[in-house]
Amino acid sequence: MYTMGDNSIFKKAQEAKNKTEEAVKNEQEYMNSIDNMVNEYLNGTGNGGISTPTEPTDEPIENIKSDWATIEKIAKEIAKDDTITSETEEVKVVVDGKRYTIKPGDIFEAEYNGEIKRVRVLGFKHDDLVNKAVYGGNHTKASISFEFLDFMTGTTYKSMNGSSTNSGGWANTQMRKDLNGYTTNAAAQSGAIGGLGANLSNKSYIKQVAKTYIPTYNTASTSTCNDYLWLLASSEIVNSGYQSGAYGVAITSEGSQYMYYQKNATEAYDAGSTNRIKKTSSSGSSNHWGLRSPGYHYSSTFCYVSNDGDVAYSGDASNTTGVAPGFCI
Question: Are 116 and 97 in contact (CB under 8 A)?
């Protein structure tokens, strides 16, 4: 029983009253802030407290020219975008808050045996993937196709075969085995990239793709084989040849023309086509570079691009030329 002299009950009552008034005040301030945010949003004077995504910054492609981990991320984003096709001339991709714009003809860098080599974008979603799960999900096309602009092996030129034959076409060449580390000429090969390809700084990002080839030099029929590194075909560079349906001096098509070469299209016999000239290095000299297409007129030859850009030649399979393979990321 409390007496008038005992004021503890009154203190407790006062404290409770103060807490209630504070709670009411806080509640009112909260409600007022909600009203203000709604009014700002409706009146266009604020965003109503709604957070907006940070706009990605535009990043020069030059900043990642040898950053293959980021290029791989870009490739994964390209794979998910169904609006990008082999006819696409430019892509914009956001990775890690940065927006990159990539076009056929853009130059990147890879190292071979520690030496920097320029590589060039050929196009997007052109080549058929062997493993459709490499980007996550299910995708049929490799995102970005590249070619070496500098000869991968520099001044060390190489032949297609040790003898004068194009029997079996590209799939049966020593060059194919040397580039990829294959021990047989089987069309389908398993395992990681080996051979000369194992000396590339970006080897772990290269995707295996199915490439079309002519097995018999004078028969207009084709087959496919699976490769990490491959030489380009005449038809992937030019859209004309020695006769209707031919490409350069190859009897038929071994894959459609890459977007880079579509945009820089010239006749197969056009010597002086600078977009087809390749060098031993960025400061080196130009030279012939080999193609995977057999020459239509002899059982001993493969096509090549001359040092002035002419695609209308073939040479003995045992002759050496510059090595400028393509690859996909």
Answer: no
Residue 127, judged by CB atoms within 10 A of its CB (0-12, 13-18, 19+), counts as buried
DSSP string covering 104-134, please? TT-EEEEEETTEEEEEEEEEES-SEESSTTT
What is each CA distance from 296 to 45, 158, 216, 246, 318, in whole angstroms? 73, 21, 9, 9, 17
Angstrom distance (rounded) from CA 324 to CA 311: 14
Report the alpha-carbon distance of residue 212 to residue 292 in Å, rounded: 10
Q: Which of 315, 245, 284, 267 is closest to 118 using CA atoms?
A: 284
pLDDT, tens digit, 9 for 90 and up, residues 103-159? 999 999 999 999 999 999 999 999 999 999 999 999 999 999 999 999 999 999 999
Helices (H), 90-224: 174-180
Q: What is the pLDDT of residues 61-90, one digit of tens each?
A: 999 999 999 999 999 999 999 999 999 999
Instruction: Tell which phi-psi region holds residue 281, choosing left (phi > 0), alpha (psi between -120 and 50) or beta.
Output: beta
Q: N- to C-terminal Cα distance for the chain? A: 86
Token look-up 């301030």 returns 29
Assessment of whether the complete model's pTM goes beyond 0.70: yes
Give Cα separations from 13 to 6, 20, 24 (angstroms): 13, 11, 17
The 3-state DSSP class for residue 213 equals strand
Q: Quick check: 202 and 325 in contact, CB under 8 A?
A: no
- Position 329: which residue type? I
Give the DSSP H/E element, type plus range, for residue 211. Answer: strand 209-213
